[in-house]
Structures
1.
Amino acid sequence: MKIGIVCYPTFGGSGVLATELGKALAEKGHEIHFITYQQPVRLNGFHTNIFYHEVRVPTYPLFDYPPYELALASTMVDVILNHDLDLIHAHYAIPHASAAYTAKQIVKQKTGRSVPVITTLHGTDITLVGRDKTYEPVVTFSINESDAITAVSENLRVETFKHFDIIKEIEVIHNFVDVHRFNKEAVAAFRQVIAPNNEKIIIHASNFRKIKRIDHVMEIFKNIHDALPAKLLMVGDGPERPLAEDLTRQYGLESDVRFLGKQEQMEELLAVSDVFLLPSEYESFGLAALEAMAASTVVISTDAGGLGEINIHGVTGYTSPVGDVAKMSKNAIELLQDETKLKAFKQNALKEAKLFDIHHIIPKYEKLYRRFCRTGDC
Ligand code: GMT
């Protein structure tokens, strides 16, 4: 099929998921058109079935806020018409679902054809930003106008019905991971560089927003470090990074914490890590945790949102109430001090991640797309 994917091109989970989905669909012979303002970060390399259409937003002295949503809708109209797209798949409701609705109406007026729009809800578009009164009416409207709606976890589906007046069914299609890509042997020399004295390696990766509770990451690591030799890898960047760097200095951990910034080769880093910390206030799913599990890394997280759907307490890691730094620290320390248990948990993490392997999830999206097949042969 010919599918238009609208997403954020940045390191956020929704953009990563949308890009990986597009790449996997292209591998299976679909023609994929990414429509966004910048080349998606995980869209590297050439593929005959993948096209990228950049949304340009012309500025004008009158505009304090250049109207991205209009430029996006217009670009979508162009791409739908020029490439005869079968459907649009919008990832993250704001502003993608409403821009897709606008594009659909324009194409309908021009050609009489109603191009199906599928909206995938990812998290903060529902639980944080979308609920704000300034956006809520548009978000509710555009979700209800979508031809199909999916959520990346059962928790997000429930949250969406709780906070919005949704009159259609929301299907859960969990996020996925390419286990083959993440299940890498640790490179001994690399581990040696990071942890020369065989210290345990703890890792956190996110966009360092408040919701990720970077302060708790630092506190948990301090407690671990007090109990055993350990190193912390901080991957990503964002508003809370200065706080994390301050806390590193305050706790006197400068030589054991490395800030690596944004990284594309997460699999190399995860392969050498023992524990992934994710003490977030909320995660609709926690794609970063799933990628860690696929690399056989144990997850110490909160039980917020959909995290409990992937990180199984006492099996693949531990989940604790938001803010319970003491419990998260204790769980991590106990695990890191017991090699046999750590090894078993690592194996369990990989086994659980395999349930969310890309090969199980892509067919679910294809099945959904086929509902909107125009010719009967797709
Ligand atoms: O977590 C973020 O800050 C990024 C955000 C996004 O929209 O890119 O991630 C959300 O979508 C991911 C992919 O579906 C989920 O794995 C994340 O849990 C979700 N984040 C939140 O719910 C806070």
2.
Amino acid sequence: MEKNDRPKICICLTGKTIAEDLRILERYRSMVDYAELRADCLDPNERFYIRSFPEKAGLPCILTIRRLQDGGKFEDGEGVRLVLFAKALSFPKAEASANYAFVDLECDFKAPVVEEACHTFGTRIVRSLIYRDSLPENLDTAYDRLTLEEDEIPKLTVNPQNSADFIRFLEWSLQRPKRDQILIARGPYGIVSRILAWRLGSMWTYASPLQYGMEMAAPGHFDPQDLVNIYNFDLVDPDTVIYTLIGQHSIAQSLSPYLHNTAFRKMGKNALLVPTPVDSFSDGLKILEMLGGKGAAITVPFKEDVLPFLAIHSTDVKRIGACNTLVWRDSAWAGYNTDADGFERSLLEFLGKQDISGCRATLIGAGGAAKSIALALFRKGAHALVLNRTYSAGRDLARKYDFSYTHLDDRAIDQISEYSNLIVQATSLGMKGESDPINFYEFKGSEAVFDLIYHPSKTVLLKRAEAAGCRTINGYKMLCYQAAGQYKLWMNEPPPDIYAQLEQPESS
Ligand code: NDP
């Protein structure tokens, strides 16, 4: 990608009729550059009309007829496929835009008639090789199978099974000489290759019209609107400074990219936050460094794993024993923690007062987040009771601040009642709709209940508390305020108001 040239998006149209595909395309026209007609998804009698698609679509089109074995829906034999390609690519119109700009042909599909027609009439061949469920041992050998003709566009699709696989693919992609090509890692581990397709040297990234109910054409696709609105496809360029969000699979649902990238856009920062789902913190750090990133947000479950990698530990990191923010400072990684401040600000706003000294609070959990909450409660002069599934971890956290502690089961009922001005839920239980960690406790209705989870926006615990008449808040505001703290550390300037103003999206 050249400077002043934004990354390109190709929308995959998998409708049953041409009319449906065109209707969907119309909704995304302003944000996409190419349209891929997945003719294998069309009803059989619609296939007669595929020749007319580029003229009707009015933007450069790619014709793909994907076989079942490659993840497509085309069930007929290769002879029928050949006829369809020939039909779609023949009788070219004088106006080049009325013809297919590209055709996707698998590397084992040898069809000299189709290839000759393409060369004669100016349709470029995307030569693809798909590893649906794996990553080849030797990526160079796989790639060499694709690069037979100079004017063809090699397209290699792999499916990393873990973050180590993805690192191997990323390392290889970043070292490839520049040429027209498409390199894709599918599935949850590969999302960086979709968001940063341009960094990996791909001509475009594929996207599916998910917001209009069309299926995801391949695992890991984003909706084009998300690529533009969340990942700033209209702004990024080769100089964009990368920040990453390091966490496990669940970070695909994180609102951090939405918050930070909206702030970067608003403040005119040439920066982008990209989620990197990984199996270990060290894998996340490798990806960050490979991308030349300048910082990272760290989330579940790596906030403690990061500590040995830090050259500088902020005071809060030392006190809490967990770090949620990395900043590249003086050729080394400095670690900070903005969770305690983020929690404190959202809590005081929620309670509507600045002074909570003497407040009696129950804190559920003793993980990275709970450690920040404990510090914030201690700083504000609250008295707390700590409950945790692993008793010893709860005990150790409580002792640090001279708090009380007990078991996370019905033995705690009476003590919770004594510490019931405020109840803070800081475990990961509830993110998947599970029952709440204190289902043995009956709310009186006078408790203020703060659940750190924001996805789902109302956990079972919050619903139960609300039904009993309690005031409740989820973790969205805390997320916003801890993110504002991260912005300040990364940009070395006060965060914009946008962090306080952005509402939680309804779909989250
Ligand atoms: P950690 O992995 O560090 O800690 C997880 C905590 O949850 C531990 O206390 C663990 O107990 C407990 N836990 C996990 N599974 C269960 C279970 N089945 N039953 C009971 N307890 C369980 O995660 P974090 O502390 O970083 O995050 C915890 C939650 O807070 C997450 O949901 C996260 O999304 C949210 N969070 C929200 C933030 C916000 O800004 N809104 C910021 C940070 C976190 P044990 O010690 O026994 O393993």
